[in-house]
Amino acid sequence: MHKLLLIIFSFSFLIAAGGGGPVYQDSNSLLQMFKEFVNIFSEPIISFTFITIIFPFLFPPTDWFDKIHRRLGLHHIWTNKGGYFLFILTTFFFYLGYTDPYFSIILNKPDNFPIVLMAYAFVGATWYSMKKAYINDARLDAGKKPREYNDPEDKVLVWPDLVYIEFIALLIFTAALTVWSIVLAAPLEEPANAAATPNPSKAPWYFLGLQEMLVYFDPWIAGIVFPIFIILGMCAIPYMDINKNGDGYYSYKERRVGIFIFMYGWVALWLYLIVIGTFFRGPNWNFYGPFEWWDPHKLEVLNNVNLSEYVWVYMLGQETPSNILMRESVGFLLVFFYLFILPIFLSQTLLKNMFKAYGPVRYASLMIFGLTMLSLPIKMFLRWTINLKYIVYIPEWFFNI
Predict the structure, then answer these.
(1) What share of the chain is helix, strand, coil (3-state, %, to 5)?
(2) CB burial class (10 A; 0-12, 13-18, 19+) of residue 182?
(3) Which residue in 35, 95, 134, 327 could disulfide with 291, CB within 3.0 to 4.6 Å?
(4) d(CA 216, CA 387)
(5) pTM for this one?
């Protein structure tokens, strides 16, 4: 299966390469149809849903998903020559981008060049680490030791071994940054002018994930709570992780649930938002396909509705109560149930074994971080499907969820 996919994408790449130069609307109908398909598929509701559905089959968290994963031949992506397939697919996408009259404008911006490097770095690092993990899993199943296993008596000294490696890495990255700064001009614009603001006005690429979160959450959540939880959650991983398997060597089978959760949070809830904010958010923060012209006059009719309006106006057919607490009572109940009742319910049912293994403190911490992370895709889907803006809407107190 993987060989067939490799042939198909290689053939498509040759077709595209045969066109040569910028591709215009009437230059290649087959290629233009493919670009239109990519524009439609790039819609957040379609692309994010696809990522969410396919993710457990690429990084299977359970035995059931792993069986489907291997039956479909998806494990070949992380073994054998799957890295070449991912490299060709990534190169094919950027080739179309750099030869497209619209997408090339965005890709050629100096401040978007790190996104291209990030794509190749992500593909290479993920494939390489997963390949080594699959090799070690096969060795462990055969009763052998992992490749990275070292005898406890073997030691690597900080000086000179580690210091030499770090010094060489420092020289390489310094040279790379020096060449980068010479070849690409700094993305500096004119001094701030309130009478001529850029449209769209974007943060640096590494903050575009947070800026995209502002579409779905209030600034105090997207700009303060989420970043703090991300930092604290990363720091807390060594203290909450009780699984000692996989320490010091690559292995997916022994840490599949943790790797799946981390990869979904990193790829779907961070890298995906950066890519969306960089390539797909255009004038007026409207969504545009990668091969679509950024028309500043494009209008998207959005009738965002708060949960209180759905309950009181649409369901009960009456005006929203003047009392703030009464008006937002349903939203408060949902948030309270989601953050406090649901973890208790899960600890006695589906996650009963996990609760016993981790204990109440670790379990509560994991649920707080996990449910907070899960609230982002939930809110994204609610915004895209039913135009839900806020679950709790109290502008009088500057408090919205």
Answers:
(1) 70, 0, 30
(2) exposed
(3) 35
(4) 10
(5) 0.84
